[in-house]
Amino acid sequence: MRFLKAAACILCATSMTAHAEAPDGAEFAFVIKIFEKIQEQSFAANRELCGYLGYGPDGELMTTRINRGEEAACYLPTWPAKMDVIASFHTHSTYNPDYNSELPSSTDMESDEDSGIDGWVATPGGRLWYIDSSEMMAYQVCGAGCLPQDPNFVDEPAGAIKPSYTYRGILKSESQ
């Protein structure tokens, strides 16, 4: 059911799907499966989990090993030589009112831009974000509850989380 809810949501994000760099359906479905597996682990450990997504030598989607980070940071594994890496992915750990964890961070966006890849971020509220590093835009692919949620999650007021953010918008949100 979550997948159907998320798949419907990606279709309504017209600003993202109209962009040439939008992920295809296979990538989206693969990412949903990744986060459905690792979100609960991230909450239980109060740690971010991260890795890379790409195509293996056989042309199939695959991930690197998944690294366990800290509460608000994760250091990506070594970039595999035999993998065509297309995106990073990571969780945002558990709900903590001291962090703006329902949005990708400027560091998330900068890291993907520096690596020349896009990114995926899952939040404690179960939101899924896609970072288009060539445009420096973050798109909310699906809202609160489309992925597993931290049991301690407290949602933002209605309308507080926008469907997309520019890099400057993310910087502004971090300074508030």
Brief write-up:
By secondary structure, this protein is α+β, with helices and mostly antiparallel strands. It is built from 5 helices and 8 strands.
The structural class is alpha+beta
Q: How many DSSP H or I helices?
A: 5
Q: What is the strand content? A: 15-25%
Instruction: Indicate the overall shape.
Output: globular
Percent range for helical residues?
25-40%
Order of helices and strands: HHHEEEEHEEEEH
**On the 0-100 scale, what is the average pLDDT?**
88
The CA-CA distance between the termini, in Å, is 35 Å
Q: Count the domains.
A: 1
Q: How many β-strand runs?
A: 8
- In angstroms, what is the radius of gyration? 15 Å
pLDDT under 50 segments (min length 5)? Answer: 1-20
Q: Tell me about the biggest sheet?
A: 8 strands, mixed
Question: Care to describe what's here?
Answer:
The chain has 176 residues and is an alpha+beta fold. The protein has one domain (2-174). Helices cover 31% and strands 22% of the residues. It is built from five helices and eight strands. Strands 1, 2, 3, 4, 5, 6, 7 and 8 form an eight-stranded mixed sheet that branches. The protein starts with a helix and ends with a helix. Residues 1-20 have low confidence and may be disordered.
Secondary structure blueprint with pairings:
Layout: H1 2-12, H2 14-17, H3 25-45, E1 49-55, E2 61-63, E3 67-68, E4 84-91, H4 106-115, E5 118-122, E6 128-132, E7 137-142, E8 164-166, H5 167-174
Parallel strand pairs: 4-5
Antiparallel strand pairs: 1-2, 1-3, 1-4, 5-6, 6-7, 7-8
